[in-house]
């Protein structure tokens, strides 16, 4: 009975105080649009970096004495080393083909009696091994393997990549903290205004003997509902903006980084955005109620 | 429930001070018996409202003890206040009705807070509204009612829980003379049903008309406690 009254009072509160409720919903929506857009941006940046990461590779140049038949067993041994995702074998002939393709023809090699390019193994790394420490461990485990002539680590690239990923993630975390705090303050103050606008009602309830729970629960539910609606609105706005800007963003990315794999939130991420709106609304209501003691 | 015979309101040397050295009430001791009707009078600022606020635990005394329905208000925790208020009905000069709710919903508030089933609550509200002559306005909103009708709604809300004490702070202050009598008659009739009633008013004509006990406050102190003030010549005086 009391639950149904609390729910009815919460819906009534939103319906009756339309302006203040709308203000609270819009505030939460604006804040979550900022948070959502920033998160989406960071997620996509990390995504692009991870795509780069997939192409980060080491090259093990092989001894010329190895025959093609020796390559597969050696590749298997290398693939078993720590941090290795997969290994691709580049035979001498394939290396030559590549060179010809890149150099624009076979003219440069005219006059050479035999193929001077060595066979090699292209070693692709697991995401967690794309850092300097893991590279060192890998180098040690490959060192001294018979048949490997030279190891091109590309360490600077790897370290630069690791720094970029950690910078983006750290920045995202910082932005999330700042935006989250700002969101909570703004939402709490908006809901506090709504609370003051309806203080008479809460005081009258208190006068007729309503318990603190009876007075507070509908107000908290109201904050939850406003936050939920704000979250839904924010999701719709971020989605609309994403769809609207996607062609331009794709074009820009293709020009700058040569790829344009962008994505929107997954279902669970979308749910999290809406749920954080509801959470913000609830927290805002709790903060607004702090210090209220009823009719005095 | 207070024991039969035990006065529902007792004050012992109660003082209330909002600023050091300045008393809204000073050393007030009094008892109000069960079913008794008391007028509380005095000039503005004499302490009438403060005394009522102490009784329904909206304020705590600075000094002294107040026993209301057997509970010591001075030691009442915040969690125990709602339970006390469910046994005390309060009516104010400005009605304190919620404009976004109908008359019926306003009166039902007092029943909703104690979890009275909806069907039973509606029946009780109808009976109460009938007793104050407003059953036909139950789906109207307070703004569409006259001042007298709004005060009758507030009175119905205060009485719907059958309180043991009814407090009224200048309940006729905003009303025309004929409406004053109408409201006061309804309040007096509550006392005849066993409810202890304390009405704060500075309207001397009402006090004289009903001939009930009168407590006069002056600068926060009880200056006069007259067991049967006035001539009691009016309609309500014989009730």
Low-confidence stretches of chain B: 231-239
- Strand neighbour order, sheet with most strands of chain A: 2-3-1-4
What is the 3D form of chain A? elongated
Whole-number tally of structural domains of chain B:
2
- Mean pLDDT over all positions of chain A: 81
Count of extended strands of chain B: 10
Q: Hey, which two chains have the biggest interface?
A: A-B, 22 and 27 residues
What gap, in angstroms, lies between the N and C termini of chain A?
Answer: 28 Å
CATH domain topology of the largest domain in chain B: Rossmann fold
Name given to the CATH homologous superfamily of the largest domain in chain B:
P-loop containing nucleotide triphosphate hydrolases
Q: What is the radius of gyration of chain B computed over CA atoms, rounded to a whole number of angstroms? A: 17 Å
Rough outline of chain B:
globular
Number of helices of chain B: 7
Number of domains of chain A: 2
Described by strand count, sense and barrel closure, the largest sheet of chain A is:
4 strands, antiparallel
Strand order of the largest sheet of chain B: 6-7-8-3-9-10
> What's the helical proportion of residues of chain A?
over 70%
Compute the gyration radius of chain A: what is it?
30 Å
Strand content of chain A: 5-15%
What does this structure look like?
The complex is a heterodimer of chains A (296) and B (239). Chain A is an alpha+beta fold and 296 residues long. Chain A folds into two domains: 180 residues, no CATH class; 73 residues, Alpha-Beta Plaits. Helices cover 71% and strands 8% of the residues of chain A. Chain A is built from nine helices and four strands, in the order H-H-E-H-E-H-E-H-E-H-H-H-H. In chain A, helix 2 runs antiparallel to helix 6. Chain B is an alpha/beta fold and 239 residues long. In chain B, strand 9 and strand 10 form a beta hairpin. In chain B, helix 3 crosses helix 4 and helix 4 packs across helix 5. The interface between A and B is medium-sized, with 22 and 27 residues.
């Amino acid at each position: 009975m009391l639950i149904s009254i609390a729910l009815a009072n919460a819906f009534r509160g939103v319906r009756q105080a339309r302006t203040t409720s709308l203000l609270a919903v819009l505030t939460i929506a604006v804040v979550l649009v900022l948070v959502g857009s920033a998160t989406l941006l960071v997620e996509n940046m990390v995504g692009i970096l991870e795509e780069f990461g997939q192409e980060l590779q080491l090259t093990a140049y092989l001894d010329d004495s190895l025959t093609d038949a020796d390559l597969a067993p050696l590749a298997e041994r290398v693939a078993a080393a720590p941090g290795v995702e997969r290994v691709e074998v580049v035979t001498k002939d394939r290396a030559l083909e590549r060179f010809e393709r890149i150099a624009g023809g076979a003219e440069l090699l005219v006059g050479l009696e035999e193929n001077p390019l060595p066979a090699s193994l292209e070693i692709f790394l697991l995401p967690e091994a794309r850092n300097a420490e893991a590279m060192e461990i890998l180098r040690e485990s490959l060192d001294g393997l018979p048949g490997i002539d030279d190891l091109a680590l590309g360490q600077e690239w790897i370290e630069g990549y690791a720094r970029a990923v950690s910078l983006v993630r750290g920045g995202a975390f910082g932005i999330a903290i700042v935006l989250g705090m700002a969101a909570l303050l703004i939402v709490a103050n908006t809901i506090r205004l709504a609370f003051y606008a309806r203080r008479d009602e809460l005081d009258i309830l208190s006068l007729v003997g309503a318990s603190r729970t009876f007075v507070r629960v509908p107000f908290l539910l109201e904050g939850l509902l406003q936050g939920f609606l704000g979250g839904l609105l924010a999701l719709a706005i971020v989605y609309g903006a994403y769809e609207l800007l996607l062609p331009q963003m794709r074009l820009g990315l293709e020009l700058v980084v040569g790829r344009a794999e962008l994505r929107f939130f997954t279902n669970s991420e979308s749910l999290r955005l809406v749920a954080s709106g509801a959470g913000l609304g609830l927290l805002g209501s709790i903060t607004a109620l702090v210090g209220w003691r009823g009719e005095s | 429930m207070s024991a039969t015979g035990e006065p529902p309101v007792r004050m012992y040397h109660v003082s209330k001070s909002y600023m050091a050295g300045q008393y809204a009430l000073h050393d007030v001791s009094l008892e109000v018996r069960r079913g008794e009707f008391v007028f509380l009078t005095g000039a503005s600022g004499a302490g009438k409202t403060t005394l009522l606020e102490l009784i329904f635990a909206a304020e705590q005394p600075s000094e002294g003890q107040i026993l209301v329905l057997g509970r010591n208000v001075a030691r009442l925790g915040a969690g125990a206040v709602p339970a006390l208020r469910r046994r005390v009905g309060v009516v104010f000069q400005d009605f304190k009705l919620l404009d976004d709710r109908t008359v019926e919903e306003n009166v039902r508030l007092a029943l909703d807070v104690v979890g009275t089933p909806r069907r039973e609550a509606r029946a009780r509200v109808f009976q109460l509204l009938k007793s104050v002559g407003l059953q036909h306005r139950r789906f109207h909103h307070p703004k569409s009612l006259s001042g007298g009708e709004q005060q009758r709604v507030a009175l119905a809300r205060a009485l719907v829980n059958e309180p043991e004490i009814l407090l009224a702070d200048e309940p006729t202050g905003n009303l025309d003379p004929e409406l004053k009598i109408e409201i006061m008659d309804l309040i007096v009739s509550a006392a005849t049903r066993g409810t202890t009633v304390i009405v704060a008013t500075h309207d001397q004509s009402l006090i004289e008309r009903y001939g009930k006990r009168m407590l006069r406050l002056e600068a926060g102190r009880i200056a006069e406690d007259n067991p049967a003030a006035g001539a009691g010549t009016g309609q309500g005086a014989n009730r």
